[in-house]
Specification:
2 domains, elongated, alpha/beta, D-Maltodextrin-Binding Protein, domain 2, five-stranded mixed sheet, 14 helices, phosphate transport, lipoprotein
Length: about 325
């Protein structure tokens, strides 16, 4: 995901934070005289004296699907806490959990729930953690715009296309009226939570086609599908929105992925929640990390909408903040 996408939002929110923190002399005097002690801006403080300036570092890794939300949050957080360094890698959900288990990161982004074997390894390593929901996503199946025949697919057809069966697959194998052209496949890598989710709800545990090009970088998948009319791929909804001029989103069981169908769960079975997992000891020992997680939960809904995902109900973010407060 390109960071320039967030520059406008960063400028707007950053300016809002700055104005809320500083204000004009007149406004500051008025608040001192008439509104002392009253909170005037939800989610941010109102004066420089009230904003505790922190130092330190925060590290994370994980899902490429969640990355656009985190990258946007980090850019804006740097406006509020310029002395806190937040780094967040993109190793895929599985790769991120490996670093989390090894004690290398404070948080781990995930586009699927943590697996039982990952829970067991964290317990063995003595790492307690807390799961937080960030947003909803619709895993989006995409084709080249020149593909005018496979714009709507059923789950059964997706299984026919993506499950390895020992043959070289052609579009005409799926529907005899379609071209007798070989299908080219682009898929997230096996460390990706998106791969795991697709495996669960579409492949049903069967092997993915062996000819698929795998990559943890969703932009590689975008380029592949955009470059050939016989290509098909899948990744998070935000990456499709970033490339609507290059790709066509496939309707699944007659339902188009968009913010409304994803939020209502109508885009089934490819709607899914997105998570961040936080190390409890780091929340207690690292004030900067606690502050960043608080900032994340207060702003994740807005950022999710800004980068192309779907915000949770406000009550779910409030519940997350209460959980976080209990870990302090």
């Amino acid at each position: 995901m390109k960071k320039w996408k967030y520059l406008t939002m960063t400028a707007v929110v950053g300016s809002a934070l700055f104005l809320a923190a500083c204000g004009s002399n007149e406004a500051g005097e008025k608040e001192t005289d008439t509104n002392k002690g009253t909170e005037t801006n939800t989610g941010s403080e109102t004066t420089n004296n009230e904003v505790a300036q922190l130092t330190g570092s925060v590290s994370g890794d994980g899902s490429s699907t969640v990355a656009p939300i985190t990258e946007a949050l980090v850019e804006i957080y740097e406006e509020e806490q310029p002395e806190v360094r937040v780094s967040s890698g993109v190793s895929g959900t599985g790769g991120g959990f490996e670093k989390f288990i090894a004690g290398e990161t404070d948080f781990s982004n995930a586009s699927r729930p943590i697996k039982d074997e990952e829970k067991a390894k964290l317990a063995e390593a003595g790492i307690d953690y807390t799961e937080f929901l960030l947003a909803y996503d619709g895993l989006t199946v995409v084709i080249n715009p020149e593909n005018t025949w496979a714009t709507e697919l059923t789950v059964e057809q997706l299984q026919q296309i993506w499950v390895e069966d020992g043959t070289t697959k052609k579009w005409s194998d799926i529907d005899p009226s379609w071209p007798a052209e070989e299908i080219l496949f682009y898929s997230p890598g096996t460390d990706s939570g998106t791969y795991d989710y697709f495996d669960e709800v579409i492949l049903d545990g069967a092997d993915l086609v062996k000819s698929a090009e795998l990559s943890e970088d969703d932009n590689v998948l975008v380029t592949g599908v955009a470059g050939d009319k016989n290509a098909i791929g899948f990744f998070g909804y935000a990456y499709y929105l970033e490339n609507t001029d290059k790709l066509t989103a496939v309707k699944v069981n007659g339902v188009e992925p968009n913010s409304e169908t994803i939020e209502k769960g109508e885009y089934s079975p490819l709607s899914r929640p997105l998570f961040v997992y936080a190390k409890n000891s780091a929340l207690k020992d690292n004030e900067a990390f606690y502050n960043f997680m608080e900032f994340t939960l207060k702003n994740a809904g807005d950022m999710a909408g800004e980068v192309g995902y779907v915000r949770l109900p406000d009550a779910m973010y409030e519940e997350g903040l209460k959980t976080l407060e209990g870990l302090k």
